[in-house]
Amino acid sequence: MQKQFSLLPKIAALSVMAACAAPAMAQTAGSNIVNLGWFHLMPQDSSETLRKNDGPGAGPIPGSGATITNADTLGFAFTHFFTDNFALTTDLGIPPTFKLNGTGTLAGVGEIGKAKQWSPAVVAKWYFGDGNSKFRPFVGAGVSYVWYDSIELSNGFQQTISSKYSGGAVATAKSSAKLSSSWAPVFNIGATYNFDKNWSVALSVSYLPLKTNADITTELPAAAGGTTHSSTSLTINPIVSFLSVGYKF
Predict the structure, then answer these.
(1) Which has more pLDDT, 31 or 167?
(2) From CA 53, how far away is CA 218, in angstroms rounded?
(3) Cβ-contact 155, 200 below 8 angstroms
(4) What are residue 242's DSSP bridge partners?
(5) φ and ψ at residue 246, rounded to 5 degrees
(6) How, if at all, do strands 46-47 and 227-235 pair?
(7) What is the mean pLDDT of residues 203-231?
């Protein structure tokens, strides 16, 4: 009897080890995983000189430029594993608001304007390791379609270009802007850690080579040249990090 009791701790230890060694079956062919988390967008931006396209004084505004602020938003991703290693992810997020600040001769304006960016993406990923691995690095590539809404120009910027375009005669002309939509490639790298067969945490970093054209319409009085148009191009090239919690079903 005493010998039998002495075996119990060994049996219990072996049972724990066996449980830890049991396949997690976390990411295998046919798995669907939903992730919810935080997107952080960091533009690696530059801009071309603002140009007045028509009317008196048409031409570039010397030294004018702009820079784009970072942004944060809530993100959602759905991943389907076609094999133990190959998966397709759809990324969505609440549209973040980017703010545009003047630089160079527009630095004194401060905030030029702001806009919300929509950029859903589909990314094909290759996961290393096997479907039962707890830690799984991955690489991916895909495509995103980017467009903008809720575009607003600040009062300070509108007053500045009103004065510039009218030779100081008008300071309150209304201006509005449009930003072009475009497709952008997505390059992705990251890793997932599986706590068990259902729950995981993931961190990924993506890079999107992205450029948009801005067209501005300014409604000047006829005596000051009438409606005039100006334009510039913004290179955004954001680095996007996504920290999230995932659930497999």
Answers:
(1) 31
(2) 11
(3) no
(4) 39, 204
(5) -120, 150
(6) antiparallel
(7) 94
DSSP H or E run through 158? helix 155-165
C-alpha to C-alpha distances, 59 to 108, 171, 228, 245, nearest whole angstrom: 21, 20, 12, 51
In the structure, what pLDDT confidence band is assigned to residue 171 with cuts at 50, 70 and 90? confident
Which two three-digit tokens encode residue 15?
């049972």
| pLDDT at residue 95 is higher than 80 | yes
Mean pLDDT, the chain, whole residue set: 90
Structure tokens at 220: 């000047």
How far, in Å, CA of 86 to CA of 125, rounded? 6
Of the candidates 26, 27, 33, the one whose C-alpha atom is nearest the C-alpha of residue 249 is 33
The answer to whether residue 68 scores a pLDDT higher than 90 is yes
Which CATH number does 27-248 carry?
A: 2.40.160.20
- Contacts of 146 by beta carbon, 8 Å cutoff, 6+ apart: 117, 118, 119, 181, 182, 183, 184, 208, 210, 212
Q: Is 147 exposed, middle or buried (0-12, 13-18, 19+ CB in 10 A)?
A: middle
Which of 58, 67, 145, 144 lies closest to 100 in space, CA to CA? Answer: 67
- Give the residue, 31 or 224, on which the prediction is more confident: 31
pLDDT digits (tens, 9 = 90+) for 1-39: 444 444 444 433 434 343 344 445 678 999 999 999 999
Domain boundaries, given as residue ranges, for the chain = 27-248
Q: What are phi and psi of 202, to 5 degrees?
A: -140, 150
Tokens 């300070």: give the residue. Answer: 156
